[in-house]
Design brief:
It is built from 13 helices and 10 strands. It is an alpha+beta fold. The strands form 2 sheets. It has a 5-stranded antiparallel β-sheet with strand order 1-10-9-6-7. The relative contact order is 0.13. 46% of the residues lie in helices and 17% in strands. It has 2 domains: 109 residues, no CATH class; 237 residues, Phosphatase 2c, domain 1, CATH 3.60.40. The protein is elongated, with a radius of gyration of 29 Å. α4 runs antiparallel to α5 and α4 runs parallel beside α6.
Length: 394
């Protein structure tokens, strides 16, 4: 029955498209204006050039503004590449004597020398800026490579479940932080994790990478979910010990949720909650929240005296588990109001295809961007998983 349901076409596709909110541009929505519209940056020195010509043409002979042409190549150097800067420098030098003769104004030779000086200064500035831009692109490429290693893409039907995930970095240039997720295809069924490391910067990324690597190995090798949990706890302690030897004073911990979807496709799942926000479940029956459990975050089990217990829960065939980090639940609007995830999920309940993981994650991300106006103050990760008909192991 599940396979037939998966192959059945969407009967209300038009109504879904009418409801579906516009997809946000993701982290790119937070990019500076000059980065987003860099391919049109030549328009600014062009407008400046036209403005200088018009001012000189429309003002009395006593008002000498043609020397402002020196600003045109300097502005081009700050916004455009060397080739475009050279073009504007040539235009400024050529336009000065031509316009001087055309309007009949008595601009002095010192004004012309000022224009030439501006053009000469603009050329090395444009070269330095181009080199800095190349260096920044290399750094962004390295950050993107790190993100792909820590947060690898999830193929459709991976592990026999339907899943979708998003990661939005508050620092758009870094593109990676302490939030992490993964879905592992194992001989025992699919196992998923989503977590949030305390703190920011490279130490948080190091803990996230260590936990993801540990989870990928332990989830595949260990049949018991409690053993997987103990391996994750041990990994945090080892990483903190390494960091302390390298001079890091603060010990890190992480909240996380681990979910196991057994390979038999049953409606019984197992879950371990390491002090994370309770996952939500969306399905035909509406929205509900899974029990919170009593587990301490990863790295703090010695203070709690024990690891979190493994919860055995029922999940309907058409229900989807949604796990998010506090970048969603603590997202604020301009007035400081928090994003109400539960209310938004309830507004989705009953809509055709709302529980499909890809659409569910996309809808929540769009709602968060609308709520915050595209200004994320914290890294954000979302993972939606439900039983599916795919099959993959590895």
């Amino acid at each position: 029955m599940r396979a037939a349901k998966a192959n059945r076409p969407w009967q209300s596709w038009q109504s879904w498209q009418a409801w579906q909110p516009p997809a946000p541009s993701g982290p790119g929505a937070q990019l500076p204006v000059l980065v987003r519209y860099g391919h049109r940056s030549w328009l600014i020195p062009t407008v400046l050039l036209v403005a200088v010509v018009l001012v000189d043409a429309l003002t009395p002979h006593s008002f000498e503004s043609l020397s402002w042409l020196a600003l045109v190549p300097v502005v081009a150097a700050g916004l455009c590449g060397p080739a475009v800067t050279v073009a504007f420098a040539g235009l400024a030098i050529a336009a000065y004597p031509w316009l001087n003769n055309l309007w009949g104004k008595a601009h002095g030779i010192e004004d012309f020398l000022l224009v030439i000086a501006g053009c000469v200064l603009a050329l090395p500035l444009s070269v330095f800026r181009a080199r800095a831009a190349v260096y920044v692109r290399h750094l962004q490429g390295a950050a993107e490579t790190t993100r792909q290693v820590v947060l690898r893409p999830l193929p459709p039907g991976w592990g026999g479940v339907d899943s979708a995930a998003r990661y939005l970095a508050a620092d758009v240039e870094a593109r990676v932080g302490g939030d992490f997720y993964d879905v592992v295809a194992t001989p025992y069924g699919a196992r998923a994790i989503l977590g949030d490391v305390q703190g920011k910067g490279l130490p948080a990324v190091s803990i996230a990478a260590a936990l993801v690597g540990c989870f990928r190995e332990a989830a595949f090798r260990e049949a018991d979910l409690a053993t997987v949990a103990s391996r994750l706890e041990e990994r945090v302690h080892r990483q903190n010990l390494l960091s302390s030897r390298l001079g890091e004073d603060e010990e890190r911990f992480a909240t996380a949720v681990v979910v196991w979807f057994p390979e038999d496709g049953s409606e019984r799942i197992q879950l371990v909650n390491f002090g994370h926000d309770c996952p939500h479940v969306l399905g035909p029956g509406g929205v509900r929240q899974l029990p919170p459990g009593d587990g301490a975050p990863l790295g703090l089990a010695p203070l709690a005296g024990r690891l979190p217990e493994v919860q055995r829960l029922r999940l309907g065939a058409d229900e989807t588990v949604l796990i998010v980090t506090d970048g969603v639940t603590e997202a604020r609007d301009r007035q400081g109001a928090f994003f109400d995830l539960r209310a938004h999920l309830e507004s989705l309940a009953g809509l055709p295809g709302a529980a499909e993981p890809e659409r569910l994650v996309g809808a929540v991300v769009a709602a968060v961007f609308r709520h915050t106006g595209g200004r994320l103050t914290d890294d954000t990760a979302l993972l939606a998983v439900r039983n599916g008909s795919g099959a993959a192991t590895g």
